């Protein structure tokens, strides 16, 4: 019985991680086509750094991811507070609209953005990309921040008000410090989502502003080059780190429990 | 109470949530310096009254005044009122000292004074040395004390306490009751305490308001409320009481009437004016009943024969449930006297039930 369990778990792990292991292994494989192990090398890493078009696309991706995550976090946090604390017309519609946005298939969102930008006559590029990325990150921010907000003692805000704090003071001294873990976590989540998006990006950006996933995608069409393996490995490391931080930040519920 | 100047008043205040009326034409005066308790079952509107005073809710109609000035349009942060929340609502990201200093900081009190007042407040609630603790490191009772210190340090005219002791265990609660009462005397701040616990209300308050269904039922000292409840709801809500239904036979003198209770005539006192044949409730507290072990009805005395159906020994008292026949059950509670050989009634034993004339409380039946 115990042996069976170990075999079963091993199989699942192999199933999940074998492809990734192969990819990471190949990034250090001196044999170009990766069918067999040709010895350890770092030359593909060097080659990647020399590949200007790939590095430019990487720079674009980072810039968009940072800006989109930041904008989504600012707008999303304020939206969450509005939904949590105030009554306003269309409040229900606003929150369910966010869910629809999150549940929609990427391809649908991609086409919607494209149609919208075409109708407005906006030329595709950095701005359209940033706008689209901010939009699809928004619901994830709202959900993460709202979850944390709901964990608070609802009387905290009244207590602050009772102790003569103005709305602004309540925001800066109570709400913001308490929400910081959720805000940071949702920023990292948005950053990762933006960084590895292919479908929406390929619809809403133009040829002069290429982002990394699209560049890789077009490179792979003519065969997997070892540089792509290297790049994927690096991205994997970045994503793993941000997700680990995200988990750590959201897991730390000590703040909520103390009341 | 040395002086009786009104500090807070509700004048015909109404409050609705959506379409349900919580308060209708509600009137209330709270005097400066008193320990005032609002007592009632959950959902009676007592917390709404408190939230209206604090400024967390706004009235639909009527005027609330503090020190004679209408405060309807003054927001919570500008009222000379502070609240101790039921759930404490301490700021989890601040330590004890920062929690207590928060309100003073918001009002721009100079740093040195903040330091001094925080230290005093901590002394008052006996938590000196806990300055740097975080709320998550405190017990329920300690959180309670911090919450009180955080409100008291603001030196409010009125301190509102919302079921503040209900989360504490019995022993701690009794201790905190004493301390709250002492604190109130020492600080001279008017306390408005909301609770559903009648024992708590009786032991701490100068005056009690009993509420039910959004209406004030009775306002009075604990003694008045307990001994002269103005209706059946209050009588039953404040402790145990036995209610005998009766009819007035005749007037004996200005305050005394002869009443027929299921065939037994009893002379009772009543401050209300009663007419012949008026239906009345004659109410007697379990501890005011006199129970005697007698097999037969004694001659020349008016009382009731009954059978003990249930008994429970509480340590201080012996409580019995006595069947008087015709579906009438009464409760008695007697102080334990170990030397009394007759004290120990066994179940199914016949007893004679009576009470000292004048210890009953009589109200007209229509006054429900």
From TrEMBL, chain A:
It is a multi-pass membrane protein. It is found in: Cell inner membrane; Cell membrane. Residues 58-249 form the ABC transmembrane type-1 domain. It comes from the Bacteria. CDD domains: TM_PBP2 (cd06261). GO terms for biological process: transmembrane transport. PROSITE patterns: ABC_TM1 (PS50928). Its main location: membrane. The chain crosses the membrane at residues 7-28, 62-84, 96-120, 126-149, 170-189, 228-249. Keywords: Cell inner membrane, Cell membrane, Membrane, Transmembrane, Transmembrane helix, Transport. InterPro entries: Bact_Polyamine_Transport (IPR051789), MetI-like (IPR000515), MetI-like_sf (IPR035906). The keyword S-adenosyl-L-methionine does not apply. GO terms for cellular component: plasma membrane. The keyword Transport applies. Belongs to the binding-protein-dependent transport system permease family. CysTW subfamily. Required for the activity of the bacterial periplasmic transport system of putrescine and spermidine. This is Spermidine/putrescine transport system permease protein PotC. It comes from Paraglaciecola hydrolytica. The lineage of its organism: Bacteria, Pseudomonadati, Pseudomonadota, Gammaproteobacteria, Alteromonadales. The gene is potC.
UniProtKB/TrEMBL annotation, chain B:
Its EC number is 7.6.2.11. Keywords: ATP-binding, Cell membrane, Membrane, Nucleotide-binding, Translocase, Transport. The keyword 4Fe-4S does not apply. NCBIfam families: potA, PRK09452.1. Belongs to the ABC transporter superfamily. Spermidine/putrescine importer (TC 3.A.1.11.1) family. The complex is composed of two ATP-binding proteins (PotA), two transmembrane proteins (PotB and PotC) and a solute-binding protein (PotD). This is Spermidine/putrescine import ATP-binding protein PotA.
């Amino acid at each position: 019985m115990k042996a069976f369990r170990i075999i079963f778990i091993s199989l699942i792990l192999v199933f999940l991680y074998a492809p990734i292991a192969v990819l990471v292994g190949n990034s250090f494989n001196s044999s170009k086509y990766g069918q067999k192990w040709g010895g350890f090398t770092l030359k593909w890493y060097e080659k990647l750094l020399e590949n200007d078009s790939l590095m430019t696309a990487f720079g674009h991706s980072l810039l968009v991811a940072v800006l989109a995550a930041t904008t989504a976090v600012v707008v999303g946090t304020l939206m969450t507070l509005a939904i949590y604390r105030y009554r306003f017309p269309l409040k229900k519609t606003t929150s369910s609209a966010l869910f629809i946005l999150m549940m929609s298939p990427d391809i649908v969102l991609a086409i919607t953005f494209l149609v919208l930008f075409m109708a407005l006559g906006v030329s595709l590029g950095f701005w359209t990309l940033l706008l689209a990325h901010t939009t699809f990150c928004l619901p994830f921010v709202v959900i993460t921040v709202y979850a944390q907000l709901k964990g608070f003692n609802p009387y905290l805000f009244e207590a602050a008000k009772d102790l003569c704090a103005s709305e602004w003071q309540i925001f800066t001294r109570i709400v913001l410090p308490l929400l910081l873990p959720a805000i940071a976590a949702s920023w990292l989540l948005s950053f990762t989502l933006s960084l590895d998006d292919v479908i929406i990006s390929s619809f809403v950006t133009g040829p002069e502003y290429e982002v990394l996933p699209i560049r890789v995608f077009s490179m792979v069409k003519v065969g997997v080059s070892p540089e792509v393996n290297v790049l994927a490995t690096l991205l994997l490391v970045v994503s793993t780190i941000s997700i680990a931080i995200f988990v750590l930040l959201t897991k730390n519920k000590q703040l909520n429990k103390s009341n | 109470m040395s002086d009786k100047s009104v500090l807070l008043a509700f004048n015909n205040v109404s409050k609705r949530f959506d379409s349900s009326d919580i308060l209708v034409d509600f009137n209330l005066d709270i005097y400066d310096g008193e320990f005032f308790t609002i007592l009632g079952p959950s959902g009676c509107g007592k917390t709404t009254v408190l939230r209206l005073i604090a400024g967390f809710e706004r009235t639909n109609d009527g005027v609330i005044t503090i020190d004679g000035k209408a405060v309807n349009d003054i927001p919570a942060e500008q009222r000379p009122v502070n609240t101790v929340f039921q759930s404490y609502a301490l700021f989890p990201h601040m330590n004890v000292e920062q929690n207590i200093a928060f309100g003073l900081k918001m009002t721009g009190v100079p740093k040195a004074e903040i330091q001094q007042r925080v230290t005093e407040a901590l002394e008052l609630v006996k938590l000196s040395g806990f300055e740097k603790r975080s709320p998550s490191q405190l017990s329920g009772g300690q959180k309670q004390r911090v919450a009180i210190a955080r409100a008291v340090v603001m030196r409010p005219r009125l301190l509102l306490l919302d079921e503040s002791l209900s989360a504490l265990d019995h022993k701690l609660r009794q201790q905190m009751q004493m301390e709250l009462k002492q604190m109130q005397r020492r600080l001279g701040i008017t306390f408005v305490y909301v609770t559903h616990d009648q024992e708590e209300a009786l032991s701490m308050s100068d005056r009690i308001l009993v509420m039910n269904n959004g209406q004030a039922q009775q306002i009075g000292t604990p003694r008045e409320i307990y001994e002269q409840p103005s209706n059946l709801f209050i009588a039953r809500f404040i402790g145990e009481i036995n209610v005998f239904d009766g009819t007035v036979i005749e007037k004996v003198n200005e305050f005394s009437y002869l009443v027929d209770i299921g065939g037994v005539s009893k002379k009772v006192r009543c401050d209300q004016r009663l007419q012949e044949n008026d239906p009345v409730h004659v109410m007697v507290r379990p501890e005011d009943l006199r129970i005697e072990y007698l097999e037969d009805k004694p001659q020349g005395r008016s009382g009731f024969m009954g059978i003990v159906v249930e008994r429970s020994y509480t340590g201080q008292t012996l409580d019995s449930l006595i069947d008087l026949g015709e579906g009438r059950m009464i409760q008695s509670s007697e102080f334990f006297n170990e030397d009394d050989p007759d004290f120990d009634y066994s179940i199914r034993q016949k007893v004679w039930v009576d009470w000292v004339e004048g210890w009953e409380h009589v109200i007209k039946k229509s006054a429900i």
